[in-house]
Amino acid sequence: MTSLIGDNCDMLRRLIRATFDNRLRHDDRSCADGGDRNGVQKPPILRRRTINAIALLAIAVILYGTLLPFQIDPARTLTWKLGFHRPMSGDFVANITLYVPVGAFLCLLFRRRGSSSLSVGLLSVLVAGTLAYLTEVAQTVLVARVASWTDTFCNFLGASIGVVLAPLFQRILRNLHTWLYVALRTQPFAAAAAAATLCIWTYGLAPFDIRPTPQHMTRAIQSLYEAETILPFGTGSGGDTLMSPRQAVEKVAACTSYSLLAFLAVFAAREAGRSVIASGWHGLGRAIAMVSAIELMQLFTISHVTDPADLTGGWICAGLGAMAAWFALQWSPALHRRPRFVLQCVVAMMVAGVLVWKSLALLVMDVGHELTCGSWLPLMSSFHRPWNSVLGDYTTGFLQYAIVGGVLAVLWRSSHRRPPVLVVTGGVLVVAFLTMAYTTAIYRPIDTGQGVVALLAGLTVIGLDRALWEKHTVASSVPPP
Fold it and tell me: Is-above-0.85 flag for pTM?
């Protein structure tokens, strides 16, 4: 246990150093540091055109989300005077969070070499604040909208936070890009395990509606004590109702992800030079610690419930994944030196698992509800939901589609081929349409915004693929002899 804690602390220390230490990142504009003899380097992350596209996209999303459902109330009159209202906690956090990336990318958009940081920051905050105020003014004549100075101030605060964090955000992103670029070439199993860890944390805790109040903690602990069994996939928390078949399938799928994490962690430890036995225990300990940490964090969230059955189910699946990796290394001791073959097998098993999961979900779907879909406009079916819940669904959806696109990109790169844009985006959109078809099959409202999220995820995967795997030649300032 002491060794495991030490390993985790050392990994955290290396990640923090790689995130904030610029000396570990070579300058993308210079061949004097980090380039090979031919002057070939990794391409820079966040080019000017990328920043412009993201900033315009963020503004478009803000305009669409704040003006939906685009219905003007004839009884209202457009006014420049706004009132005040007491916001709900979820809307308060969402109004700040939505404008953080707007402020950050506006700051990066206006910044030029040699420009004043103060003037760029003030201009960015002014543009974001004007946008927030004008959208609130437009809401004075829209149906089902309440214009308020409170929302404007929250948006202004979020944009200011984004402006302050913009240089740090760009620095962190470039440093992590370099770390990932090197890790994928020197420690592919460690990089894959890190990606799996990020995905599981996002799925396990999104939406991030943390509420550590004494009342909430009391109810969560009481629900934990009332669970009648610790056997996985049995009764749910509270012990008074049985899970539906669809919920059982979803719990099995969630627990299976810990098998993948344990499997990759074992190979990452073997890749780092540990013995087969030590690697098995190392991967098992990492996965078990992950399960325990996520279930503990769920005590503080609103949308999740800590369940002893989920804990034991995750432990069992982690043990199965570590055991599978241990047997594979016993069968072929040099298997960890063939990362392409192993990761291709993992990708194939992931695709098969997703297909089986969707098939079982369709077989045990809940029926008997009337299908309601008032409009095919994106986000319309989620219009009356809290913003934090909608953002959580879109976050997990984006991650899910990005995983699908990443799987397609890895399959192409493992064959030394450049993944086509149409293949990656097309595959992701197919999954999005299948998800919407599944939503229709279980008689639930359809959100066509999932298609937009899927398209953005596919394009993001393509951008990351190009940034990580392709190189460019930097023109040298020294004339040829």
Answer: no
